[in-house]
Amino acid sequence: MSKFELRQKGVFHYSQTSPHGNVMWVKFVYHEVNAPDKLVYTSFFSDEMGNIVRAPFNDNWPLETLNTFTFTEHVGKTILTMNGAPVSPTVEEMKSYEESQEMVLEGFSGTFVQLADYLSTISYD
């Protein structure tokens, strides 16, 4: 089961499979969809039914994260500013989140590389 509804109160629920065959589910709930300027959503690891679960890689990962993406134009290009913060974290969860920022950055960077590769294959004719 996967779902994608890019609208206020909409849900993006999907799974990822690691090279080792482990399946990990993630769910987003959109709070603000203001194209083309802003996107706000909470994200969390989930089970297949969409229920919040602990991150499979760290028992102290925050249960939920609030993410805000803003898009601005500068000299004919789009600038993406991304802010993320745990929602009501414990001290341990906040520490894990802060210590994992390099991993988070690598994850987003890899996603944007894949997006750029995909977009390079699209014909705009």
Highest CATH level, the class:
Alpha Beta
Task: From the alpha carbons, calculate the radius of gyration and give it in angstroms.
Answer: 16 Å
> What percent strand?
35-45%
Mean pLDDT over the full residue set: 93
The tally of structural domains comes to 1
Helical run tally:
2
Q: Can you tell me the overall shape? A: globular
What's the CATH H-level homologous superfamily? START domain
Q: And the CATH topology?
A: Alpha-D-Glucose-1,6-Bisphosphate, Chain A, domain 4
N-end to C-end Cα span: 34 Å
Largest sheet, in brief, is: 6 strands, antiparallel
- Label the CATH architecture: 2-Layer Sandwich
Main-sheet strand order equals: 1-2-3-4-5-6
Number of strands: 6
Q: Could you list the spans in which at least 5 consecutive residues all have pLDDT below 50?
A: none
**Helix percentage:** 10-25%
Given helix and strand content, the structural type is alpha+beta
Q: Give the ordered list of helices and strands.
A: EEEEEEHH
